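Please check this protein record:
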Amino acid sequence: MVSVMDVQKIPEGYNQTDVGVIPEDWKVARLNEVCSFGGGTTPPRSEHDRYFVNGSHNWIKTTDLNNSRIEISDEQITDLAISDTGLKKHPIGTILVAMYGGFNQIGRTGYITRPSAINQALVAVKPKSKKLDSYYLLSDLNYNVNYWKGVASSSRKDPNITSMDVKNYFIALPTIKEQTAIANALSDVDALIVALESLMAKKGAIKTAAMQQLLTGKQRLPSFAQTVDGKAKGYQQTELGEIPVDWEVVGLGALFESKVSRKRLSEHFEVSFVGMQDVTESARIRNYHKVKYGDVKSGFTYFERYDVLVAKITPCFENGKGAYVDAIGTPVGFGSTEFHVLRATENVDSKYLYYFTNTERFRKELERGMVGSAGHRRVPFTSIQKYQVAVTSNKEEQTAIANVLSDMDTELDALQQRLSKTQQIKQGMMQELLTGKTRLLPSEKNHDT
């Protein structure tokens, strides 16, 4: 029931509806009034060769949903899969909604850009011509994604939604002309977001390849690749394969102190605190807060600026959590007890050490040596010390390698900032356009839906 206070807040030319306050010339409808619906199934996995090998038809499942346009599904199915199971291919412009597949998957969406079949975890929503624009529907569902989480968690033991929930979903309806204008504006921003995400993925892949080449010596930086008389330096065969002749194989522990010393501090000395939630899965610090030394001196992990943090517990370790400690506001920090602290020795560049802990090989090999019970397995400090790497003892070369990789990180950070800003702009646009607070076209009263 709308209160007197709510009515007083409604601007002139707007009405209170089931979807909130919208322009008075907009209407509200349930999706089953303006859409048709369809479903799908999974061809028997026991007939994998018959139904999946050399498939040519899109078959979309929950993990394919990206809240945007879907071009190619992860798995393709065969002609026999279509004919034997009775699967229907939904047309271009169909919107898909995930009904189950994990709480974070519920309500995810996709826009079919080529005729596609789907599995049973999705519902296909097909807007009726001249009633509802497909991309407008996609944008509205993405804007209200948290609605589905509320439906799923409040009504069922196992979180999920049903096709009936989707059919009963209320949507605000401007004219089809205004819907299209809104959809086009949001689609342009989505295209920029996709382009930025694609560029980030490309730059990330380049950085991964550069780490693999530079940290193993397979590629030498020009100023370190030749002898004093201008001849190319050779390679030697080792247990890790070929490495530069002037490099050596050592345990990673040779690059850092076996024990971290602590400064003597007063109780009121200000330090930075970094929890496990404050580091990313790309091993970066994204947040910290300042506290008094006396409040954290016991029961937490001590570190200093330019130390390297490595998560020790599953699944944080496998996921890449950790950090190079440069982005804190104090010389000393404390953090989760689930961090290992690696402090580079005097003759080692600390960021060079850090990049070894970012490699896929480091994570995969040490994962196999974790100890403890299920859900509480940890990487022992000694395992990190014994982890074999090929290294250069030339600190100048270490620093040069670290600088190349650091420059790549800086470029990725700049792209991430652009992406985050663009996503914020899109969110603001959705809030304005999908509620009619900002109009792209003049109002048209009494329009038909």
User: Anything to note?
Assistant: The CA atoms of residues 55 and 173 lie 39 Å apart. The two ends are 26 Å apart (CA to CA).
